[in-house]
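#onboarding

Welcome to the new folks! Below is a worked example of what a typical request in this channel looks like: someone posts a single protein sequence, and someone else replies with the predicted structure as tokens. Don't worry about understanding the tokens yet, we'll cover that in week two.

Example request:
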Amino acid sequence: MTSPRNFVVLPRTIGRCGSTWLCDLIDSHPQASCLGELFNPGTAQAFREILEPLGDERAPPPVFAQIAGAAPQAHAVGFKIFRETLRDREATDPSRGLDQADRILRQYLGFVDFVVLIDRKNLTEALASELHVRATKRWHLREGAELPDTFDDSITIDLPSAARRLRNAQQTGDVISGMLSELGTPTTTVLYEDLMADTQKVMDGVFDALQLGPAPVKSQFRKMHHDASFVANLDEVNRVLGPEFGMLRR
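Example response:
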């Protein structure tokens, strides 16, 4: 039997870019297995059966062997890898924490057959969504589920902090693009906005890139935010951040 293609789903700039949704859409293909964020300490328990047999071993070959072993029918196996959650949170020097993240990321990008890069044009919307879900503790919305009342709570965005965060996100995008170019890793880029506009068309392209046949897509998640009415200082955010990073919709 031919070994499955190994891939990672990689957010290019910032969270809340649809990467969890994208993983779920890939996983809906009958010949694919796409796990979530395998190396995020906050989700490690969900992948205990995959990670426990590895012990401290996190090199790509045994990790992908474990994933493939758990999905013997899959022709393509992968997971989400996010630069932000790879960093060493205990490092006293933030740059050293990112050095570790980039070593791990480079190791995986140099090993996999393919990268599905996901990005978002409107970074202001992505950050507003992240700040809101951190406040409400509701990260994802299952298909058919009702929004809780607390999800209507408004937030006020600290503009200097937000600007720093978004510029850091842009710098992360530059680092990742440079790394992919240097390594020559085959990559397809998915824009969140395109995925929202025509999910099946975008996923047809992703499946083709992963050398999978066509398949109808389905997901257990649905969009949580349709506008930015939860941002109390929306006009100020658009005045300060919008021109550079993207405008918030009312």
